Amino acid sequence: MQSLIDHARAHGQRPEDFAPLADGQSPEVLFITCSDSRVVPALITGARPGELFELRTAGNIVPPYVSDRPTGEAATIEYAVEVLGVGDVVVCGHSHCGAVGALVRGDDLTAVPAVRDWLAHAAPEPQASDADDPTVAEAVQNHVLAQLLRLRSYPCVEQRLATGRLRLHGWYYEVHTGAVRTHSASTDTFEAL
């Protein structure tokens, strides 16, 4: 913790570098990814402050849209699309994902009921031909596609897609190599970015 505190103390030593951020934000991308500490969107993309609007959830899950029961996730998506006017949304899953791995293996999550109940939002359960694969690559990639499909059901996303003002992207990040793959609709595979 001390190294983080030391960095935070030194971070604001050049306020002139941050002054323009007071004028507002205009990110081009909403980046939806896992809460996993090994996944750092700005590091992966090289984004500077103000360039990415981020939504991080356990397992990069996009919960179902329910108009009479708003969630923080739905509010973040709606704000990014309607207020900030992002032109792209990336759903980025990652290798070695504990959430997806737990679903694929059918882990007993009774000791962590909030996690268990949150992961129920992942439906359909990610499919994998090799449940023993520690990277859970196939399952994570299938999960990313399911979350993109779920995202399409959000009214603001559906409307922007229909008018061509929004593009959706599915990414898979390998924490053990740093490589990023993107889903290609033409081949229905994840290919090098």
Automatic annotation (TrEMBL):
Spans annotated as Disordered: 1-22
Origin superkingdom: Bacteria
Role noted for this protein: Reversible hydration of carbon dioxide. Catalyzes the reversible hydration of carbon dioxide to form bicarbonate.
Gene3D superfamilies linked: Carbonic anhydrase
This protein's name: Carbonic anhydrase
Keywords, in A-Z order: Lyase, Metal-binding, Zinc
Cofactor(s), names only, from the UniProt record: Zn(2+)
Family of this protein: Belongs to the beta-class carbonic anhydrase family.
Catalytic activity: hydrogencarbonate + H(+) = CO2 + H2O
Record lineage: Bacteria, Bacillati, Actinomycetota, Actinomycetes, Kitasatosporales
EC number of this enzyme: 4.2.1.1
Basic and acidic residues bias spans: 1-17
EC main group: lyase
InterPro entries for the chain: Carbonic_anhydrase, Carbonic_anhydrase_CS, Carbonic_anhydrase_sf
Organism, scientific name: Streptomyces lannensis
